[in-house]
Amino acid sequence: MIRLFVDGDLGAGARLEPRPDQARYLTQVMRLGVGAEIAVFNGRDGEWRATIVEISKRGCVLETPEQIRAQAFGPDLELVLALVKRGPLETIIEKATELGVRRIRLVTTRRTNADHAKLERLSAIAAEAAEQTGRLDVPAVEAPAKLERLLEGWDAGRRLMFCDEAGDDPAAEWGGPRGRAKPAFEGLVGQGTGPWAVLIGPEGGFDADERARLRGLDFVTPVSLGPRILRADTAAIAALTLWQAALGDWRGS
């Protein structure tokens, strides 16, 4: 069944008009007619069966006769992501949504190369991924903020998985052993399952001062993603996968 993320309130007998692009998709791309059924959700009221009751040149109208699933949320997991180039950034947004992230917080660091992001497009990518993956909510994508400022206002009750890619010696292979964190899965197993966030740095990694500050914070858990230097999109997917396997809702699947 086709699923659509909508903005309006949902309930028995509710009538709503999808956005023009959604209406075109339903009536022109999928060629659905009056009486066809889809599923809709808004991140608040669960998932509802919706019937197309009107079609016009301006769009279409849906009516929701019954709820399919009650509202539910996955683990309280956020992704804190240093800005990267558009292609990898869009991939990370899509895959983070598929992997169950509840919120995506963009940051700038001392080695960040990208300086802006199209939040509307990123939010649309997250919504499409949520539609396809069967989840009942869409992660919010927040405007970029400086990493230093984010850490200053951090809620210490939320653990932060810091993906620390290397040691501190630029002359040694992989940065040398000093400062090397535990393997990610080993570092996560046995930790609490409350609110968490995963921090992924820019393509150039964190500088020494940023790494030192992060390692000095009580709520930070430094981890390693292995001996190879990973692209940001690969690192994000790997880190979120390991967190879900160690502490998330994959354990009960």
Structural class: alpha/beta
| Envelope shape | elongated
- Tell me the strand percentage band: 25-35%
Proportion in helices:
25-40%
Strand arrangement, largest sheet? 8-7-6-11-9-12-10
What is the number of helical segments per DSSP (H or I, 4+ residues)? 7
Annotation, overall tally of beta strands: 12
Secondary-structure element pattern, one letter each: EEHEEEEHEHEHEEHEHEH
Roughly how many Å is the radius of gyration? Answer: 21 Å
Terminal Cα span: 22 Å
Low-confidence stretches: none
Describe the structure.
The chain has 253 residues and is α/β, with parallel strands linked by helices. The chain is built from 7 helices and 12 strands. The strands form 2 sheets. It has a 7-stranded parallel beta sheet. A hairpin with a 5-residue loop joins strand 3 and strand 4 (47-56). The chain is elongated.
Keywords, separated by commas or semicolons:
253 residues, alpha/beta, 27% strand, 12 strands, elongated
Question: Strands, helices and their partners?
Answer:
Blueprint: E1 3-5, E2 14-16, H1 20-29, E3 37-41, E4 47-56, E5 59-69, E6 77-82, H2 86-98, E7 103-108, H3 119-133, E8 140-146, H4 147-152, E9 159-163, E10 182-183, H5 184-188, E11 196-200, H6 208-215, E12 220-224, H7 232-247
Helix pairs in contact: 2-3, 2-7
Offer a quick outline of the entry.
With 253 residues, this protein is an alpha/beta fold.
